[in-house]
């Protein structure tokens, strides 16, 4: 008795400042977090302030496609 598409989906959050600055500068990589969101409550792309270990501060992490 499956309901079809699940409401909860797994999303990947990526640091927006690391992507803009490029990996070749001072930073050694791009910060990524894996989390879940409810598709019915949050239909738009998710953006959260998380700690970026490469920027050494809290930055906005946006949802990316897999």
Automatic annotation (TrEMBL):
GO BP: any one term: translation
Cellular component aspect of the GO annotation: chloroplast; ribonucleoprotein complex; ribosome
Top-level taxon in the UniProt lineage: Eukaryota
Single annotated GO MF: structural constituent of ribosome
Segments traversing the membrane: none
Coiled-coil parts of chain: none
Keyword field contains Ribosomal protein: yes
PROSITE patterns found in the cross-reference section: RIBOSOMAL_L33 (PS00582)
Major subcellular location class: plastid
Entry keywords, A to Z: Chloroplast, Plastid, Ribonucleoprotein, Ribosomal protein
Annotated InterPro entries: Ribosomal_bL33, Ribosomal_bL33_CS, Ribosomal_bL33_sf, Ribosomal_zn-bd
Pfam family, one: Ribosomal_L33
Gene3D superfamilies, per the entry: Ribosomal protein L33
The keyword Plastid appears for this protein: yes
Subcellular location: Plastid, Chloroplast
HAMAP family: Ribosomal_bL33
Family: Belongs to the bacterial ribosomal protein bL33 family.
Designated name of the protein: Large ribosomal subunit protein bL33c
Provenance organism: Ligustrum quihoui
